[in-house]
Specification:
Layout: H1 8-13, E1 23-29, E2 32-37, E3 43-47, E4 50-51
Antiparallel strand pairs: 1-2, 2-3, 3-4
Amino acid sequence: MKKDIISEDLLKVLACPVCKTDVELIEYKDGEYGLKCVNCKRIYPIKDGIPVMLVEEALTECDKKV
């Protein structure tokens, strides 16, 4: 279930480390979830239930991995 991936409270306080904009939970591949910046569109993967908010780990919409 999508809502079990990350708590709503945590989602409310997280922001993109690049542009400091809000992020939203998305499924970017089959069964793989991440937090997508609503401004710069970077996708930060969630690994083992932990958001990886590192710029060097971020994917972009045009990235072939997405």
